[in-house]
Amino acid sequence: MKQSTPEDAKEGAPEKDGDPKDEHGEQDEHDEHGHVEAPPASADTIARRQLLGKMSVALGVAGGVALGVPMVGFIVAPLFRKAPREWRAVGKIEQFKVGETVNVVFVDASPLPWAGVTAKTAAWLRRVSETEFEAFSVNCAHLGCPVRWMAEAKLFMCPCHGGVYYQDGSVAAGPPPHALPQYPVRVTDGQVEIRTDPIPIG
Ligand code: FES
Hints:
By secondary structure, the protein is an alpha+beta fold.
């Protein structure tokens, strides 16, 4: 029988706390604070993590597109829709005196869903004779500022850049590139009606 030696006793003794070797005698990785670090990931694990990361990004992008495209379409589509032309009643014929030019308000033919009060627009309406009317845009042909009718001077004046128009809407002075646009007007069953039209600006 072999006699046990002091070296054998040392081998069988439990490891002391803080011994860096594991049960297989391999060295654990410690950082400077004494924490055990995870063993390095294998190439397979890294590849799987990268794949999962890419799939997460792809799913996120797909979800964003699925939600975003209909919303953008809802907001932008009305801007490209052709404005319809509608007749709008602006008052009874007896409300208007021959020779007078007055401001009338009506609802635009194609208000945007979010337009609110801006769906309303206006025109300068003149009763030329018992049966004849003419209507001018309130928006200057230069950059769209509202023009005013100056009854005494018989001129339309734009306060923004000094644009001036004669009473027939033609340009008298200033930067407007063309005459004030006009709306078609008709009288139906005693109601004066204006037909909404897109107003060319600039
Ligand atoms: S917007 Fe009327 S003159 Fe410029």
